[in-house]
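name: query_chain
kind: protein
chains: 1
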Amino acid sequence: MKLDLKLDLSDAISALRPNSGYTLRGNVYSGLEWDSSNGDAKPTEEELVEKLAELKYQKEINAYQEKRKLEYPQLTDQLDKIYHTSLTAWKADIKAIKDKYPKQTMDSTELQNRKDAAINDMKKTKYLAAVERLKEPRVLFGTPYTENVWDPSQNKYVDQTRYKDVPSPSDPAVVSDEAERDAAQATIDGTPQSIIDSINT
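structure:
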C-alpha cells in the first residue's frame, strides 16, 4: 500500500493553533495572514516546519492501522467465522494480521532528527532563493545593456555592461528592490556555514 503523506502548512497550523483564524495564500509562510483576535500568537515558520515533520512521521507510524483495516475481513465474515468455527479460530486470524502489521510508536530521537532535517531543508531553500535574488539586476542602476568598447589594457574591443534609464533612489520600485535585496543578504548572512557547506558539497 502506498502511503499518502500529503500534508501542508494548514495541517501544521491546525495542529498547533486549532482554534485560530488565518488565511493562507499558497503553501508558503509568507502567504500566512494571522487573525490574533482570540489571543493566539502567530506560529513561527520554524514551529510550523517542525510540526509538519512531526505530522508526517506520525502518519507513517499510523500506517500500520490502515494496512490492518485493509486485511481485516468484513464484520459479517468475522461473525460467520466465529459462528462456524470458534472464537479461538477468529482470534488466530486477527492476531495473524496484527502480527503482520505490528503497532508502531514514535521514536523521540528519530522525531528530532526529522525536525532538524526539515529545518535544514528550509534554511537551504531560503539561502538558495536569496542567492538567486541577489543575481537579479539592481533596479537602482537602471536598465542594463551590453556595449562593445575598446579596452586599451587588453588592446582589443570587449563587451561591457552599461546602464540606461537610471531611476531616482526614491522611486518606489528602487525602494522595494533595495529592501528585498537587503532581506536576501540578511538571509545569506544568517545562514549557518554548515548549511552552505552542505549545498556546495
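note: Helices lie at 9-16, 45-61, 63-71, 75-84, 87-100, 108-135, 172-189, 193-200.
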